[in-house]
Amino acid sequence: MTAKAAINYNLSSADIIMLDFNQLFEIKKGLTVLYVDDESAPWLIRKLMRIFKDVIVAEDGMKALMKFNQNHIDLILTDYMMPELNGLDLIRKIRKINQRIPIILITGYVDTDFLIESINLGVTQFVIKPIQMPALIDAIEMAVSQYVVEDIVQKNQAQELEILRYKEKYHSAQQEMAFLKELKIIKNDLSHRTIESPDKSLWFVGVCYVPLDILSGDSYSIREVSSQKYLFCISDAMGKGLSASVTTILTTSFINHMIDQSKQSGNFDFKDFVVNYTEFIKKELLSEEILCAAFVFFDFQNETMDYAIYSMPPVLIEKSDGSLLKLRCNNLPIMRYINSHVINSCSLKNITKILIYSDGLNECRTINKSGIYQEELEDDFLNSAFKDDLYEKFKAATETSEDDITFILLQRLNCPSKNQQTFVIENRIEQVNYLGCEVEKYLSSIGLKEELNVATISSFNELLINAYEHGNLNIKSSEKNEMVKKGTYEDFLLEKEKLVDKKITVTINTIKHQIREFLVIKIEDEGFGFDVSKLNDANPDNKQLSGRGIKIAKTLSNKVLYNEPGTIAVLINAIG
After folding, report:
1. In which order are the strands placed within the sheet that holds 503-513?
2. What residues are paired with 309 via a beta bridge?
């Protein structure tokens, strides 16, 4: 291999962007060169000083290494034959520090093995002794060109990476905005609320909504159509990404529109709703698109439920004797060219728990890969006290989910009066404090574990104070905060309670239900109540109302619920 061949080996025309003379001149004028030679030629140093911004000279390899470490060097020109540390040994040490810096090796020793070793060490150019200035200039320009090209490539790569990051950040922000819109569209009129049946039992709901991606192919809606009548919907657009999300957003938006219209007219018919919705959405589907959905209409006053299930998993029902009932789908999936509007009915009597869900829950593979979660879901449903219990069991049993997870768990608790402890107090702060102590004694007397006792009493006291302050005395949070800052709040309470002749009623039940036991505490005031829908965490616009007391109670309890007017707070804890 010749020296010329070695030069060609390092620099191919495909790798170098040719720069014009003016560009190279400006580039070289800004560079610092390290010139290493034990017999440095003054004329060469003068020439280099005309070309480069700074020229640092070293008489041997050891001094060159020291100066390289002490200065910012852009280009190295080094002789090969030097005492203590020859050119190749110097290059070998420099390459351990810097892999990119261009190096021109000046040598009168040309040998195939020598050239191969030099190339392997990353020598950029070779100049043969005796030095000819045109050859040196050519080598410098080639080395600088390669250095600049690599720098440009790195800058371009960094710029492209920054653009990609910006685009990703932009798209992520857009998706998050779209998801916030999706959450705003979703309505849950039963969030933090209870419904009292004719037999005085309490119905309440828990919703689990865990999209796989920011934009979800699942959606749900729980809408009140009239007093004690509710429509539950879960939709699951087959497929992933934006198309499926658009379909579910259309679904939920149109459902809300129909419900709002029916509430204004005071006339809701479930059959008409199902027909009108399916006819609407069919026109919006692509030719091969499939939409699965479950629509369940609950009449809690008459204790009935009607359902139209379009290729969704079976609705699971726990009966009061602990047995399991499954309501299987009664309609084909919703498609453009299929008409199906079958509706069936079921009694709510002797039913304690109902699970409506999309297939992301039951079709997820189990950890041991022996099957899908459907095989374990039914037992976990029967053995779960609340929505969070079921979701934790699901996560423990399954691999990473590959689909959106959506389910609605509707539950009923019977509160028999024979096990009930009742307290009634006047709306006075000393009686509020007295009642807190009495309830704590009662909970200890029924054998509540100390940790749960402390959590329950803390939650109870917060809700009791809310009933006293914001319920019966009708004090607004902003009004309270202002007086607390001024230090006048306690005096204000004592004066205001003298003008209010209202009571607080507390009832405590312990309820045995199948394998679990529940503690249910109701705190009822005689105030004006409040809009319970403002407690809905799912709606991004509804996070301003939930004050300190309610937040503490929610954190320390399994459930904190209110009746529709907001005058009865219900605290529920599983105690066994």
Report:
1. 421-426, 503-513, 516-524, 568-574, 559-562
2. 294
Number of domains into which the chain is organized: 3
Token pair for 495:
């004066």
Residue 105 sits in the same domain as residue 203: no
Contact 353, 317 (CB under 8 A): yes
Tell how strand 75-79 and strand 32-36 pair up: parallel
Lay out the sheet containing 304-310: strands in order across.
Answer: 218-226, 229-237, 291-299, 304-310, 344-347
Please spell the DSSP secondary structure of 34-87, one letter per residue: EEE-TT--HHHHHHHHHHSSEEEEESSHHHHHHHHHHS--SEEEEES--SSS-H
Angstrom distance (rounded) from CA 136 to CA 23: 18
Tell me, yes or no, whether 239 and 151 share the same domain: no
CA distances from 250 to 126, 151, 176, 261, 436 (A): 70, 51, 18, 16, 49
**In the numeric block, which tokens belong to residue 234?**
């879960």
Point out the domain boundary residue: 349, 383, 413: 413
In a domain, 167, yes or no: no
Cα–Cα distance for residue pair 137/111, rounded to 1 Å: 23
Grouped pLDDT means (10 residues each) for the chain, 576 residues: 34 39 58 88 86 89 91 90 87 89 84 78 85 84 72 68 71 68 84 88 92 82 93 85 81 91 89 93 86 95 95 94 93 88 94 94 82 89 92 90 90 79 93 92 86 89 92 87 87 90 92 80 91 67 58 85 90 85
pTM of the model: 0.69
Q: Let me know whether 430 and 388 are in one domain.
A: no
